[in-house]
Amino acid sequence: MVEHSTDDEVDWNTDDEIDNLHWSPPSSPETSLGPAGTTSPNLTHMRISDETVARFIEMGFSSDMIARAIDETGRSNSELILETLCKYTTSSEASSSKSKVIDHLIGMGFHEELVLKAIQEYGDENIEEETNALLSYTEAEKLCETDDEDINMNDDDNLFSLSSDEEDELNSCDEDKRLKDLIKMDFPRQEAAIALERCGENASLGEIVDFICAAQMAREFDEFFEVHDEKETISNSKKRRAFNELPRSGRKPNSAMANDHELIRLPNPMIGFGVPNEPGIMTHRPVPIPDDARGPPYFYYENIAMAPKGVWSKISSQLYGIMPEFVDSKFFCAAARKRGYIHNLPIKDRFQIQPPPHSTIQEAFPFTVRWWPSWDLRTKLNCLLTCIGSAQLTNRIRVVLEKHDGEPPLNVQKAVIYQCKKWNMIWVGENRVAPLEAVEMEELLGFPRDHTRGGGISRTDRYKSLGNSFQVDTVGYHLSVLKPLFPKGINVLSLFSGIGGAEVALRNLQIPMNVVVSVEISEVNRNILKNFWRQTDQRGTLRDFGDVRELSNRIIEQLMEEYGAFDLVIGGSPCNNLAGGNRHTRSGLEGEHSSLFYEYCRILKTVRRKASEMRR
């Protein structure tokens, strides 16, 4: 991050610098004529006496200017020559004033390009206006240059990195920035440029990504699978965004990242088999569930939608070939969260958790309405991350906005909105933005107030746990079909439980939980779930384990013999190696963390095999 000097640090103009702006005549004819007593070669042919030329030189006129005046006036009348020289000087001073202003502003530390832009907009007569404009330009640049430093600080002022568990749905303040972001997300430059042109300058990065996805879809929504001839191959370049790119010839697919024959496309809009209050709700799956995958036991698997190429094809192939249901939680609450779900649940007669959550930022946080500027048109937040914008960033925004009495210039508006979208900041006062508090994230994600608060849990851990959780209302809508199926209660095997999003959803649906076996590696998250279980007076049994890799097939069988068959296996394995925000180890399902998906598959198959044996 480039540090910009404050007013107190800048030596705006010393006396020497001001003096250097004014021209001083040479103290000797030697400057223009060479050695004293000789006449410049430029004036020799004019046949004007050396005495006359020297007198003009002493008056401060250059030899070139004198020669031009003599040639113009006919070489003889010294008074006419002098008058002409005076006209030249006046004209020269007028034409040089702009140059002096430029030098003056550059000397104050502003970049030359910005200085020229300011002069073009405001002219060269009012330096005060130009200076104010330049300060606005500089502040806007500062706001756009905070990408690498504005991350959350934990309780001990130690830094933790940008979430590796969230898709990179950041919006840019101008077209060049958005193009760079799309290229960083591994979209081809040409496709990104076309999408930018078609979507317009006001489109968010998420909307542009959706446009690219839609443009690349080769089939309608219900045709997710594409079969290729064995000779037809696709590019495995690491520089490509894999989940939605059209097949290309000339290279074989990466077997670690993609199924040899199938790619799964993302729908637009991302409404799965239907969402509340939107048209197009389905009652039957476009592709039926295979017979060997029908429940019970039911299963429900979740992960980020925008995974690398071939990941969802591989996930589907490991989970009985079931087609994913891609849903954006912005249709359920005031924040986006694009996820894919593979499950064998019925989809008919779903219903929403009551009361439904607020659908806009302003409804969720009405105190913001008073301060929300007319030029910030957001009604939804972006995907909630595991980190937040820094206090330094919010202060920088306040400082730049306070320099303007009314609405700030368009470039400042764009820079501020970019940062607000990136870090999900809301307006809490005049010219004041702030990141979401943990309790506000709990509300957006559908958790009870203070669900993650207290018990030795740090502020940093709260943000991290919430950023990696389910959106309860979305998951609850899918699980609602279980209520009539299990009126006496349900046995749940909860893998990668996190802070208990599945358990909260079942409780909100008023589905009794007879047994929950929770597997979660984070002690912080396990304590949060235990606290929820006690505070809500759950009458069932909660058993917790730390690591899915230690949940052997024998232990699973023993648990089922003790408690009975599991009715639901639910969870979402880590997406560290899948998320767009991870630029270093985005290695797909073969990555260190995301490979735990195969543990989900192992455990699910063991549960279904044992359940089949128990039914005999």
Describe the structure.
This protein is an alpha/beta fold and 616 residues long. The chain has 22 helices and nine strands. Strand 7, helix 20 and strand 8 (541-545) form a beta-alpha-beta unit. It is elongated. The relative contact order is 0.09.
Short summary of the structure?
Residues 283-614 form the SAM-dependent MTase DRM-type domain. With 616 residues, this protein is α/β, with parallel strands linked by helices. 39% of the residues lie in helices and 8% in strands.
What's the alpha carbon Rg, rounded to whole Å? 34 Å
User: Which percent range fits the helix content?
Assistant: 25-40%
Give the structural class: alpha/beta
Query: In percent, how much strand structure appears in the residues?
Result: 5-15%
Number of helices: 22
Quick one: biggest sheet? 7 strands, mixed
Q: Kindly state the mean pLDDT as a whole number?
A: 76
How many DSSP-defined strands?
9
Shape: elongated
N- to C-terminal distance: 67 Å
Unreliable segments of 5+ consecutive residues: 1-46, 147-174, 217-261
Order of the strands making up the biggest sheet: 2-3-1-9-6-7-8
Please outline the helices and strands:
Elements lengths: L14 H5 L10 H4 L7 H4 L5 H9 L4 H11 L4 H30 L4 H11 L4 H18 L30 H10 L4 H11 L5 H12 L81 E7 L6 H8 L6 E4 L9 E6 L17 H4 L26 H11 L8 H14 L1 E5 L2 E4 L2 H8 L13 H9 L4 H8 L10 E6 L5 H8 L4 E7 L3 H13 L5 E5 L7 H11 L4 E4 L25 H19 L1
Parallel strand pairs: 1-9, 6-7, 6-9, 7-8
Antiparallel strand pairs: 1-3, 2-3, 4-5
GO molecular function: DNA (cytosine-5-)-methyltransferase activity; DNA binding
Family: Belongs to the class I-like SAM-binding methyltransferase superfamily. C5-methyltransferase family.
Protein name: DNA (cytosine-5-)-methyltransferase
